[in-house]
Amino acid sequence: MRIVIPLFACFLSSNLAQSFSPERRLFNKITPLSVSTSADEMTKETLFADKTRSNVEEYYGKTLQTSSDLKTNACLTAGSPPKFIRECLKNVHPTVMAKYYGCGLCIPQYDLTGCNILDLGCGAGRDVYLAAQLVGANGRVVGVDMTDAQLDVAREHQNYHAEKFGYKNTAFYKGYLESLSDVKELEKGSFDVIISNCVINLCTDKEAVLKSCFELLKPGGELYFSDVYSNRRVPQVLREDSVLWGECISGALYWNDFENLAKKCGFPDPRLVEDAPVTIKNKDVQELVENQGHGGLEFYSATYRLFKMDETLLEPACEDYGQAVIYKGTIPRAATKWTLDKGHVFEQGKVHPVCGNTYNMCKHNPKIAPHFEFIGDFSTHYGIFEGCGGGLPYDRNGASVDKSGGAASCC
Ligand SMILES: C[S@@+](CC[C@H](N)C(=O)[O-])C[C@H]1O[C@@H](n2cnc3c(N)ncnc32)[C@H](O)[C@@H]1O
């Protein structure tokens, strides 16, 4: 299914800086075009994409100066990152930090030394400069964004960070996430990890973005990214609101549409790592969302990891082959347990029964595999892995990663 959103005829203007009023439309009104032919459909989509991009570009390039200008907290990380990340963030220039609009921690928790990382929608570069410290002098971090004003800030601070770290391993390119093949510097199959922080919800063609990620990743590599999702499809009226779109709310995908789209784009088993409810701390926006969502529309920030693997390695469902893994406790800063995803927290030394997909995710990622012992093979099939999938995957009460010490649950 292609996620298509009707055309806006809206524009951002200085009134974005004003506070919301429930009576006044938050957005400038969008007029759906009444066209019917497929050529017209394409024009409609193109116009929608152009308009949305220019709205978003203006929002992040001009309207917002720092994260304190945001009207909701959807684009802000909820929890405090781990200590080693906080230490790295101390080395990032305050101007770059002030222009951080992310909604999660999108750094995989294994040794990233030497990795080639791509940050999609890097903004002013906060996560690029964070990752640059983790990959070290022999690694490389590339940021792509469409907004010049954001890229300018990122580039202006390249030398500052090179001096601070003792090496220069970053690059920034301008481009649209929907047409990454136009960014010639990005080589197919060359990235160990692709990260993205609160950006894909802003993109008009999410399918194109995910398909490009699949092409750009190395086999065994992963897209590890934080974004905003909803518990049901976002009503049209909200999607037509350019401010709410810019605030990372109305472009959010319903979680099950996202998971199905990921599968369609080559990632058969998307894994949720952590999540937190988005609390819209703006009375008027909250009211509008409640009214339009019939009191039941909820938003969550969530971090997913999508492994690129040969189609023979990942199946559409979690199948049980009687396999198990044992975590050796050797991943840096994770001596007692290591989290693959929300349903898999592996305790050091404990035998954890796993489905075939989890087995292969660990076995075929070169950064993860050396830290596990693998028990069993694929010779006998025991049916579906019990407790796999179904229902809203997020925690309404704000609990995040499973801290129970690793139940044998699956996805
Ligand atoms: C919410 S900000 C997040 C920026 C950065 N990841 C951070 O954490 O600070 C969204 C960023 O995505 C960029 N962006 C949005 N849609 C885009 C698109 N279709 N192509 C490229 N960049 C896009 C915007 O220019 C903006 O810098």
Strand coverage percent: 15-25%
Radius of gyration: 21 Å
Largest sheet: 8 strands, mixed
The helix count comes to 12
N-to-C CA distance? 22 Å
The low-confidence runs, each spanning 5 or more residues with pLDDT under 50, are 1-36, 401-409
CATH class of the largest domain: Alpha Beta
| Overall pLDDT confidence | 86
**Cofactors, ions and other ligands in the entry:** S-adenosylmethionine
Q: What is the number of domains?
A: 2
Examine the secondary-structure arrangement and name the CATH architecture of the largest domain.
3-Layer(aba) Sandwich
Structural description of this entry:
With 411 residues, this protein is of the alpha/beta class. It has helices spanning 38-63, 83-89, 94-98, 126-135, 148-156, 158-165, 206-216, 236-239, 242-246, 255-264, 283-292, 356-363, and strands at 116-120, 140-145, 170-174, 191-197, 217-230, 253-254, 271-277, 299-307, 323-327, 337-341, 344-347, 351-354, 372-375. The strands form 3 sheets. Strands 1, 2, 3, 4, 5, 6, 7 and 8 form an 8-stranded mixed beta sheet that branches. Helix 4 links the parallel strand 1 (116-120) and strand 2. The longest helix has 26 residues, at 38-63. The chain is globular and about 55 Å long. It starts with 37 loop residues before the first helix and ends in a 36-residue tail after the last strand. Mean pLDDT is 86; it is low at 1-36 and 401-409.
Describe the secondary-structure layout.
Blueprint: H1 38-63, H2 83-89, H3 94-98, E1 116-120, H4 126-135, E2 140-145, H5 148-156, H6 158-165, E3 170-174, E4 191-197, H7 206-216, E5 217-230, H8 236-239, H9 242-246, E6 253-254, H10 255-264, E7 271-277, H11 283-292, E8 299-307, E9 323-327, E10 337-341, E11 344-347, E12 351-354, H12 356-363, E13 372-375
Parallel strand pairs: 1-2, 1-4, 2-3, 4-5, 5-6
Antiparallel strand pairs: 5-8, 7-8, 9-12, 9-13, 10-11
Bound molecules: S-adenosylmethionine (SAM).
